[in-house]
């Protein structure tokens, strides 16, 4: 039994479920008293530790954000059971502890302690997405986004509820958020297409790219689509312009217009802040676009087309993957 969790330290599955009094299996584990949640545990892993059949989920750690796929490897996912209980943190402020697997069970060089503690998790939002399941079939899933808190590197378990309440209150006071930023446009409103499975296969390849490689992919795709003077800017990861290009003859009415692109190889959603930051980075008279492998919040969409401001083009992961297929662009991954 362990009395405190330390951010970055490794723990065994047995230590986790016995000390936190949760179940010994599953990605979402709850400790309950009279049906109320005392604490929750999220167990995640990076995809390359397993085959897609064993781990079809597109979970991703990006900065201080964990994007987590709800429970259920096969078939359509629903917001039921343990999936629905995570949302309750917004009301009851119970602690959610995050762990990430650092080595497969098949790796005999690593002992039983193979789960790294991430810290306390703060539920931000959830929304539908499409992914390929363990059998390679397209299905609807639910994605959850959590903010990772590691301000307190050592967390005594006897006080995790009180600590979580304080952390969540402070975070909500710091972060300026609106209901529109928590709302992601539902994928079900998309036009039906016969290529959904192929589109998701392409999107999976794009998500596997490193951020810098994704920027060069955007450059090559723009060249393939007839843009000219295409160049990738110096890598700074500051939220500014990643790719500059000029429209070619295929867009004849706006030929030679400067287009400045921000490339976001993200799984978590793009919000209003990123759209506004790009607009502030544009050269005079340039057109801006945010291209991502993920989704846009309703607030981002509203910001991009707000009256009186320079409009920003938005291309999400579904649309981007469809362009790759429609333009017959060879994706070397």
Question: Could you characterize the architecture of this molecule?
Answer:
The chain folds into 2 domains: 4-175, PUA domain-like (Roll); 196-326, Trna Endonuclease, Chain: A, domain 1, CATH 3.40.1350.10. By secondary structure, the protein is of the alpha+beta class. 26% of the residues lie in helices and 29% in strands. The protein is elongated, with a radius of gyration of 21 Å. Strands 2, 3, 4, 5, 6, 7, 8 and 9 form an 8-stranded mixed sheet that branches.
Classify the secondary structure makeup into a structural class.
Answer: alpha+beta
Q: What would the principal axes of the Cα set say about the shape?
A: elongated
Total number of distinct structural domains? 2
- The first-level CATH class of the largest domain is given as Mainly Beta
Roughly how much helix do the residues carry, as a percent range?
25-40%
> What are the segments in which pLDDT stays under 50 over at least 5 consecutive residues?
49-55
Question: What would the CATH topology of the largest domain be?
Answer: PUA domain-like
Tell me the series of helices and strands, N- to C-terminal. EEHEEEEHHEEEEHHHHEEEHEHEH
Spatial separation of the terminal alpha carbons: 44 Å
Radius of gyration: 21 Å
- Which range does the strand content fall in? 25-35%
| Mean pLDDT across all amino acids | 88
**Architecture of the largest domain, according to CATH?**
Roll
Largest sheet: 8 strands, mixed
Q: Mind telling me the CATH superfamily name of the largest domain?
A: SRA-YDG
Helical segment count? 10
Count the beta strands: 15
Regarding quaternary structure, how should these chains be classified?
single chain
